[in-house]
Write a structure and sequence with these properties.
Distance between the termini: 50 Å
Number of domains: 2
CATH topology of the largest domain: Alpha-Beta Plaits
Largest sheet: 4 strands, antiparallel
Number of strands: 4
Strand content: 15-25%
Number of helices: 6
Strand order of the largest sheet: 2-3-1-4
Structural class: alpha+beta
Order of helices and strands: HHHHEHEEHE
Helix content: 25-40%
Amino acid sequence: MRALDDKDRQILDLLNKDARMPLKTIAGHVGLARSSLRERVSRLEAQGVIKGYRVEIDYAAAEAAPVSAFLLLRLKKTPDYELVARIAAFDEVRRCASLAGEIDILVELSAPQMSGLNAARDRIATLDGVRDATTLLVLDDIC
């Protein structure tokens, strides 16, 4: 293994501060051509000096990704336009659809956090006129 020189240490320092820094930017900072820098980084990786690259996650920010669910509602009586209007007034409600069959209304909910989604679901499920509510949590939007 070849000893590290000043350029290698500068490269490592820059990558340590920002592992996603473009090679072109690093090359400019250390005074190398991009191709020379690429060779040095590859050598440092091959020698095990650079073991990998990582991501730092701000979990509070990640929680800001909205969560969604569908509520399947059975009503005590249909139609119940007043109840539908109360449901539609919730901030978390994205869409309501009247269905044929055992389920009367499909409600799509979205909230910034699971706690908000749960609270909306509980408030809707306990409205006078709702006989039964089933929650289907959306795991991933696939199309």
